[in-house]
Amino acid sequence: MSEADAHKLIIIVEDDPDVARIIEQVLSDFSFRTVWCRSAGDLLRRLRSLTPDLCIIDLGLPDMDGLEVMQRVRSQSGCGIVILTGRAHVSDRVMGLELGADDYVLKPFEPRELVARVRSILRRRETASNSGARQVAEFSGWRFNLGNNALHAPNGEEHLLSTSEADLLKVFVNNPNRILQREQLMGTRDLAPTDRSIDVRISRLRRKLEPDPQSPAFIKTVYGAGYLFLATVNWPTENQAGG
Question: Which residue intervals define the domain OmpR/PhoB-type in the entry (predicted)?
Answer without folding.
Answer: 134-231
